Amino acid sequence: MAQHNDRILRHAGIDRLFHWLMAAIMTVLLVTSLLPVIGVHFAWYTIHWVAGLLLTAVILLHIVRALFWQRPATMLTLNGDDLAGRRAGKYTLPQKLMHLAWTVAVLVAIVTGLLLLRKAGVPFLARDPYARPLAIWGFLTLLHDLAALLSVFLILVHVYFGILPEKRAYLRAMVRGWIARGDLKAEHDLERVDRGD
Amino acid sequence: MNMNILRYGHDSFGERVVNGASWELLPVAFWTGVAVIVAHLVYRAFSRRRARKGGG
After folding, report:
1. In 3D, which of A101, A116, A107 has the Cα closest to residue A45?
2. Which residue of A has its CA nearest to B12?
């Protein structure tokens, strides 16, 4: 892990770009899908499917980068230290759980969204509402809706913890890339952080 | 209060089929998020008060 005096590189530029791009795309997706629900009607569908395809591309790039350039275990594993309440490695238990919840919401939204493109139609895929039984379209839409509702909940909680004064060093790291070692001391084991755990 | 969990439609035989999640769940998702935030703010305030008392 790159260091400069008392600072540690927490997020590389490409990962910060991914995070903020995903945040912007998720905002567009939720605004275009949920504003009509609360009575603000506009031609939302084209913006929604284009944003959905962009999100799919960004997530695919993120998965490839995480698998081949990063250590996915750092974020994905809940190990004994996490469960015993010991100090964390790079990510704390709540950060890992937040990532897991986003993973579920986004992957469910993407998979069901891509399948639903067939029902509604896009320029490169002819509309065919008879391709699957109504019950299957309904089930896919139900999962897509639940992913959207989970995202509404997650955005509120994620933004709240991001702007809390005692957590703001993490937000700064997601903007600048660097975090001070002193900011990690309270909740992280610096040896584990240095090892890249 | 009678809240719907699902949206329903009908197929060509008049059978009821699920169309998706009920949009009555949208405020539930929003207010659940707000409830978590408020609960954490209360917990945070009590933790800080306890820490101040313990330290002083």
Report:
1. A116
2. A134
Inside any domain, residue B13: yes
Based on its alpha-carbon atoms, the radius of gyration of chain A, rounded to whole angstroms, reads 19
Q: pTM for this structure?
A: 0.91
Picking from A31, A108, A116, A153 by the largest number of B CB atoms within 10 A of its own CB, the best residue to mutate is A153
List CB contacts (< 8 A) between B28 and chain A.
Answer: 149
Q: What are the tens digits of pLDDT across the range A158-169?
A: 999 999 999 999
Residue B35 included in any domain: yes
Nearest of A121, A31, A144 to residue B18 by alpha carbon: A144
B1-56: per-residue pLDDT in tens? 678 999 999 988 999 999 999 999 999 999 999 999 999 999 999 999 998 887 65
Query: ipTM of the assembly?
Result: 0.90
Residue A73, CA distances (Å) to A77, A82, A104 in order: 5, 13, 17
Architecture field, domain A2-194: Up-down Bundle (1.20)
